[in-house]
């Protein structure tokens, strides 16, 4: 058995921030999960539907691994990423850093992980690996999945090699802090402004505040869109609240990030953005509750209510991001 020493296998809400937290703590940088999410400019919105999909998908964050790249750039970290189509090379890419005493991050499809209770394909799942033996590997996953967990080496190989939406070819990565790390406190305003700018200037109508407005138009028709409404709608609602989002489709994480920022930065626009995202967080939970009720009851009135709230959310989040985009670094 080979185990990296001094890895704190602390599960958090979201998979990518959980893995980042494990890797960075091992490097000596311990940040809260909301801070990791916010410094990685992680918040976004996407309404995703196509003919090939069984049911629409609401995404509340940037694409898988963009958060990691954003955070590494923001903090001046050395991010070493490896991908391969070779199973042998894929194993060497993770065994080598672990043998050298460094945990490694993996992007994979959670469907093949032994400990996952929900067997659905999701190729954007991220874990930290900190050990292995002849049969199993030892991982850090979200608190919901068990925190410190293990899965078979065969299952891990399948998970890493799976192809499909959001997958990567056996992607593994390590993170190293520079000798003189950048002050993460100095990166708060740039991270917030970048996130706000991307949200407000999204190139297509399915993204950002316009995407939320589109969801407000589409969600009232979800009973007709669903193949099995009693299954599809409650599952969509569950993913919004419990699917590694930290609650309210990642809005709770961003609210808490902004709250931490207000304790470090005295700025009226920052306080306004925090207030508005606190309001948005509660409303997103209302939306998910109404979607679940519609599926359980077959009553489209719940979806009409959800649509009205989503129209309000589009305005609220636009106002919040406009305020946050006005932030100026201290002179």
Automatic annotation (TrEMBL):
Butirosin biosynthesis protein H N-terminal domain boundaries: 14-142
InterPro entries cross-referenced by the UniProt entry: BtrH_N, DUF4872
Residues in DUF4872 domain copies: 155-324
UniProt protein name: DUF4872 domain-containing protein
Organism classification: Bacteria, Bacillati, Actinomycetota, Actinomycetes, Streptosporangiales
